[in-house]
Each structure stands twice: as structure tokens, then as C-alpha cells.
Amino acid sequence: MAQSKGKKKLTCGDCVTTSCSTRKTAFPGFCLTEAEDDAVIEEVNRIYREDPLVSKITVAAAEIEGVYYGRLTRVEEVAAFAKRIDAKKIGIATCVGLINETKSFIKFLDAQGISSYTVACKVGAVDKTEIGIPAEHKIKKGEHESACNPVLQARILAREKTDLNVIVGLCVGHDSMFIKYSEAPTTYLVVKDRVLAHNPVGALNCINTYYKKLAADLEL
Q1: Count of C-beta atoms within a 10 Å radius of residue 129
Q2: Which CATH fold would you assign to the domain 74-220?
Q3: Would you list the domain boundaries of the chain?
Q4: Rounded to an integer, what is the distance from CA 64 to the centroid of its chain?
Q5: Which parts of the chain fold into alpha helices (H)?
Q6: Is the pTM of this model over 0.90?
Q7: Rg of the chain taking only CA atoms, in angstroms
């Protein structure tokens, strides 16, 4: 449902200048950059500069953005990023519904000289009812239906000592649990959207046309 009506606290989602990106225009009165304590900003800056892993990730991500802007696909960017943070072994947490795409990704990583270890979401083959999911919430009622197991996926990849984990199409919520339990830094390759061929931004691009319902007060 839509949020209750009342005085809304303005955030970056209400900004029309995004001056924080270039500083070429004035910040709006409610700007979070302007409101933030300078000491807090500097404390965070020190993390980027001084934490070895955070610094390595920060520099690598900026290099890929700056050098390859608009030139590399996400698949290629993941490999370029892995090489720059010295990730020798990539863990792949995949949805079983995207196993063929995952196999293509593995082939790509092999060609790049990057080793990988894949764990599918249904690992453990535990029926949904065994972990407290009501039987009526199964897709196919009355049959064994394995629950997605992101916690076990994360534990197996931790045991394999992966340097970087990549999510390939885990469900909403399951991806959250995987990230929570992952011991290695985690990035996305595929964000699941069963309706839009895994391109969720498509619905937002069409919010004024085909997906006007997204701007309505819908009960979900």
C-alpha cells in the first residue's frame, strides 16, 4: 500500500539537481550532503583510504568505471573487477532456473583464466515445509518442492574460500540472506525478474506507459 499521508522527510529521491555528483549547481535545502556532519564524512573517507580491502575494492571499481565507461558488459566488468582485486576464485550463487546462463558465465571465466565454484539455490534438496514454509505457498501443491537455500550456498562458498562471490538470479529475499551470510565480497551479475527477462529496470522505464500500475495504490 502507499505510505500514509503526512509530512514527508525529503531525501535524495526528491532531488532534481544531483549536485553531489559534480558540484556545478547549488545543493537543495534538504540535501543530505549539506546536512551530514563533516566529521562523519571524514570518518567514512578514512575507511576508503585505510581499510585494505575497502580501499582495493574502491580503487578497482573506480578504475573500471573510468577506463571502460560504456564499453564493457556487466559480464566483462565482473571479470575485470575480479582481476583488479586479485580474486583468484569466484564463487557463483546461482538460481537453478539460470543454470544454463551460469554455465556460459563459467566458460567465460575459464577463458579469462579465473577459476570458479558454483552452488545452486536448491542445494540440500530440503522440502519447503521442513523449514516452516506453509504447503499452500508451494508452486506445485502436494509435491516435493525444494526450498532455496542461500545460507547453505554462502557456507559452502566460504568453505571453498572464494575471494569474490557473484549472484546469478537469486530470488528477492534469498539474495538478501546470501549477502548477509557471505564471507567474501559479493556482487550481482543477474537480478531476477521473471516477467521482464531479468531486466527489472524495464518496469521503471515504462512507469508512465505500460506499467502505470506501479504508480497506483496497489495492494501487494
Answers
A1: 14
A2: Rossmann fold (3.40.50)
A3: 36-71, 74-220
A4: 18
A5: 32-35, 38-50, 52-68, 74-84, 99-111, 150-159, 174-181, 201-205
A6: yes
A7: 21
